[in-house]
Amino acid sequence: MRRGSWPHAALLVAVTVLVWLVAGVAGALGGWMWWAVAALPTVALLVAPILLFWLSGERTWPTWVAFAFVFVLLLTAYAGPGDWYLRAAGTRTTATVREVSCLQTVRNGRCLYRYTLHDASGAPLPGEFRDTIEYEYGSPVDVVVDPRGLLGPRLAADLDSRVFDVIALVGFAGFAATVAAATAVGRRDPDQPAPAPQVRP
């Protein structure tokens, strides 16, 4: 990457947004195949801050600052795109808990539960609903359902919250500002001697 290149800086920010979206979509779809697909853009997110070393004229501080914001983006990557999709295309409904199993044990011995939900007519909803909260058989749960069946149901209350949106916005704004700062300092070439002052007669 050429030192102090504004086009390369803009490209780096754009690619970071793209790989964040790809990681989020693949993670939201779930399954081992999609998690494997999500692994590559996740690695690309971690590599992005390293590129600031060359963009900034081989300074190290932009890379460390950018890593903090990339970590914030990683926290939101697997929630943001899926939430956006369900808010736009999902259908809110009150489902009923039918089947439940402990998918895996999480911290403090608690389970990540996998539920089968049924709608008001008794038909099973497409996709799996997972939560660390234990719902009793027959309990009503307010969820948003993907009519295409691509994503599993999600709690309506979680989708009403915009916390992850705000965190992702802060992460992208901070990363873009760091890229801009790295580019600005990279334009100062330390190998070029400062021009000698001109003495007027």
Your description of this structure?
This protein is 50% helix and 17% strand. It contains 7 helices and 5 strands. It has a 5-stranded antiparallel β-sheet with strand order 3-2-1-4-5.
Précis, in short:
The chain is α+β, with helices and mostly antiparallel strands and 201 residues long. The chain is 50% helix and 17% strand.
Number of helices, where a helix is a run of at least 4 consecutive DSSP H or I residues: 7
Distance between the termini: 44 Å
Compute the number of strand runs: 5
Strand content: 15-25%
Shape category = elongated
Profile the largest sheet: 5 strands, antiparallel
In which range does the helix fraction lie? Answer: 40-55%
* Radius of gyration computed on alpha carbons: 23 Å
> Can you write the helix and strand succession as a string?
HHHHHEEEEEHH
> Biggest sheet, strands in spatial order?
3-2-1-4-5
Unreliable parts: none
Look at the structure and give the mean pLDDT.
85
Secondary-structure-derived class? alpha+beta
